Amino acid sequence: MTGDAHDEHDRARRFRNAALPHIDDVFTFARHLMRNTADAEDAVQECYLRALHHFDGYRGPAMKPWLLAILRNVCNAEFARRGKQEAPLERDEAGATTEELPMWQEPQASPEAVLLRQQDDATIRRLIDELPQPFREIVVLREVNDLSYHEIAAVAGVPVGTVMSRLARARTMLRAAWNVAQGSTP
Q1: Domains in the chain, start-ordered, CATH in brackets?
Q2: Can you tell me the distance from the alpha carbon of 38 to that of 92, in angstroms, rounded to the nearest whole number?
Q3: pLDDT tens across 64-79, in order?
Q4: Which residue, 108, 162, 99, is CA-closest to 135?
Q5: Which of 172, 129, 150 has the alpha carbon at shortest distance from 69?
Q6: Using an 8 Å Cβ cutoff, are 102 and 110 in contact?
Q7: Exposure letters 93-127 (e unless 16+ CB within 10 A, then b)
């Protein structure tokens, strides 16, 4: 192997080791931003291509927030290209959003409990998908991707205080929407 080929192989290996462990989190964030599985897959692919292209200049922060920031830029560019319209929710024939339960989820004690859990999960996903984009983004970064406030601020390009207020407001909106969905009063 020549020196250049060896360097390129080493660079690809380092990128793969650093970036691929985060692909599920990147896809989850893309799915919530794009609101469509096919568009999310395209966005993740573009994100990883851009990350690989700029990997030589990467010096931190942590890999996951860096990838999520790139993904956010990819999604925002796609929305701008489309004329700022957000993608519609992806629905199956019964009207529910199409998303499978995670493979790691343990079965519940009874079929009734499983059904209730699936309905609750679907309701939560739907309620998150219905949040306005800035709030949906913050909730997914915090609650799904488990980023710190500082990491979210870096990804979203906003001050930490804005992250905190958006998260508090998003949680309030989710709680109110949950109460309505469950038929109870707030």
Answers
A1: 1-84 (1.10.1740.10), 107-186 (1.10.10.10)
A2: 14
A3: 989 998 999 898 888 8
A4: 162
A5: 150
A6: no
A7: eeeebeeeeeeeeeeeeeeeeeeeeeeeeebebbb
Q: pLDDT tens for residues 130-164?
A: 999 889 999 989 988 888 999 899 888 999 999 99
**Token couple for 98:** 């199409």
Tell if the pTM clears 0.70, that is, is over it. Answer: no
CA distance 64 to 48: 12
Give me 159's structure tokens: 């001050």
Per DSSP, the residues of the chain read: --HHHHHHHHHHHHHHHHHGGGHHHHHHHHHHHHSSHHHHHHHHHHHHHHHHHTGGG---S-HHHHHHHHHHHHHHHHHHHTTSPPPPPPB-TTSSB--PPPTTPPPPSSHHHHHHHHHHHHHHHHHHHHS-HHHHHHHIIIIIT---HHHHHHHHTS-HHHHHHHHHHHHHHHHHHHHHHTT---
